[in-house]
Design goal:
This protein has helices at about 60-75, 85-100, 110-120, 135-150, 165-170, 175-190, 205-220, 235-250, 265-280, 300-310, 330-335, 365-375; strands spanning about 35-40, 40-45, 50-55, 80-85, 105, 125, 155-160, 195-200, 225, 255-260, 285-290, 320-325, 340-345, 345-350, 355-360. By secondary structure, the chain is α/β, with parallel strands linked by helices. Strands 8-7-6-5-4-3-10-9 form an eight-stranded parallel beta sheet. A hairpin with a 2-residue loop joins β1 (about 35-40) and β2 (about 40-45). The longest helix has 17 residues, at about 175-190. It binds iron/sulfur cluster. The site of iron/sulfur cluster has 11 residues, from loops.
Amino acid sequence: MIEVKENGFIELEQFKAVKKERPVNEKYPRRKTRVLNVGGVPMGGNSPISVQTMTKTKTHDIKATVDQIHRVAEVGADIVRVTVNTLEAAEAIAEIVKQTKTPIVADIHFNYTFALKSILGGVAGVRINPGNIGKRERIEKVLRAAKERGIPIRIGVNSGSLEKDILEKHGYPTDEALFESAMRHVEIAHDCGFEDIAVSVKSTSVPLMISAYRLIAERTDIPLHLGVTEAGTQRVGTIKSAIGIGTLLAEGIGDTIRVSLTDEPEKEIEVGKEILRSLGLSQRNVEIISCPTCGRLDVDLFSIVNQLEERTKHIRKPVKVSILGCAVNGPGEAADADIGIAASKGKGLLFRKGIAIRHVLEADIVDELYKEIMEFVPEEFN
Ligand code: SF4
């Protein structure tokens, strides 16, 4: 029985024996795919699953676009896609690439000259559907330029823009319709001798995108870029993306992900990274475990957790922190975490690797946890 003393302290002795070694998260067996190189970020095979987003600035506004790329890189974007929808945008690409370190992918619909300019400008990849470029010689020009530079292309099929004949054949957007559209573009690229291809088959419907990606995964070894398109606001889009992308990742399907939100691109990266972390597929950041709170709570846990989350979102090391509102589950969760707090009556008992080390006043909990996190050296860094 755990006892909290009159002064709010929990007896340290009660937790001396809590620490136990626990197995690390099990990994999901990954589908075997070809490996692509996106500006130094490997995609496919057993490579880490990358998280990407897209800028929301006018691309020709170089300063705004570069600033946004820097901001998403700061929160952990592995790859950033930039729309190249005008001549001015195509002409800005070389300068944007020069001023940034994150691999840039040019997003192009129809205009093959924008693709050629972007490739010459140094992009790490192009999202383009060969079947939409027009004449065969134009397709060949783009694919040859990409091949010469060693950059992959992504074929991005969307349930909202399927070809008319495919829609007529299937009646409405179905998983087979999305598959057929994607493979039509893939075959054109293959005919031109181009193999470095990733594919996406996005839909606003979570069941449809899950089903379409499963078809491609069953029938090809093409690396897959996962996403629920036009997923909505942060609240709804996070849920739809977590279910759609998360279901596929849990089946070993998916090599890169993009969460699509009607919100800032930094949020897309944060949600994407959280999806990977929830499945144990990425341990690159601080993970905070916190309880929902209940009537036993005697500290302002909402504020403590929100403050710590904000302060630690830039930290790039795998540290698991548990912050629980009382001594009922606090020590147990702390045993599974690298750093833990079990709160009680305006104070908290601080744990390091499951061992209770000292008491901390409520007002100091955020600072003390932050200090511990900064000092913590993950095993893989030893
Ligand atoms: Fe309530 Fe304690 Fe559980 Fe938090 S850890 S929900 S305060 S019982």
